[in-house]
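Structure tokens please, single chain.
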Amino acid sequence: MAELKGAAAAPAEIKMLIGGAWRRGGALQPVIDPYRGETVTMAPESTAGDLDDALEAAVAAKTKMAAMPGYEREALLNRVAELIDARAGEIAEVMTRETGKAIKDARAEVVRSQDTVRLAAGEAIRIEGQHVPLDGSAMGAGKVAILLRFPVGVVAGITPFNAPFNLACHKIAPALAAGNAIVLKAPPQSPGVVAKLVELFVEAGAPAGAVNLLFGNAVGPLLVRDPRVDFISFTGSSRVGAEIKAASGLKRVALELGGTGPTIVHADASIEEAAPICARNSMRLAGQSCISVQNVYVHDSLYDGFVAQLVAEVKKLKLGDPLDEATDVGTLIDAAAAKRVEHWVKSAAAGGARVLTGGRRHGAQIEPTVLADVTPAMHVVCDEVFGPVVSVQRYGDLDPLLAAISGAPYGLHCGIFTKSLETAMHAVRALKVGGVIVNGSSTWRTDQLPYGGIKASGIGREGPRYAIRDMTEERLVVFNL
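Here you go.
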């Protein structure tokens, strides 16, 4: 283990935010730095009573939020973005200590989060309906119909640990931009950095009850079932997403779930372009992203050269102390997650896969790993690894590969490297996924785009414009003139 940086500070006690007031919890749970093993923060376990109070506060605040003019919501969110910029260093360090994310990746997430909030601010003044022409029928002729959009009311947001700050921004900012109140349940692994974000909304002047923050796992199932919730926005595993969908009843939901990161390197692609991108995007965030490059499919004619360059690029990445500026790959969220990934790699190797580099575990860290000679039924191929592991497979005919990717349970992003526009468009038409990234990997995303998947990868789309569309409801108005 690398030399420790800095002296360990006393763990901070995190508080809930309910109705504009910070509230201490009863039972406290330690949040452990996965690299150092030190307690970073102490987070409360919210109770059913805390949830009831938070929902009551949100219900009381939703009318005030709905009445707030768009320009005021825009100004509120822009103030939050300014505060994020001013506190970026502090926020990034808390994120790294809680999650083991490399500090440079944590800083990048904070910068990106400013974009997320500013994009939501801009959308707050662009929520629009449409005119529905009625003169296409005798019954409608002479009448005027329009669709208007109104806030849904109370949003329930549940976020994961892997991008804790940015994904919380993706829940709170669109909810407020649309004129809603929100009850957010933070991930138990990284509650402190989410609390830092919520503090900024309070400091920026969010009305009491507009943002409410809870912690722990006990309140999650109660939150999604509660009839006071009008819309659920969840990012996390496909298993939990399915449970939320089953429990949500008639509530509308947005579910951003898992994936297996397929990326295709076609016969006419540039290895020099594709290999570094696939190497970086399979190992960045220690592979803990639902669009991390997990499976690379390389045409027979390029396979050997691509694998050699991919392995060379992966070996350049430094595994180490997440607070070290030189570290490229930090830890997984905890040792248990690393042990699972280690077991999957060993299982693949026992089944005939070759470990070309990496594969070893050091506490909560996994060495960046490249596998070859894998088979479709291996966990590292067909299940979401959520670790720094990439598998490379060869193919000859593109069409069976596109059919296999389309027939898989997951359908988030797929990348394809090709110099042929015809090949790219053929893949776009054939692939049953949420997004196709041409001449890029499955990992590419920017926050103004509609992001999401199909099948086991989810329902709905994120990105402020598209989340706001989901967090508002249409109302038809007909004028009989």
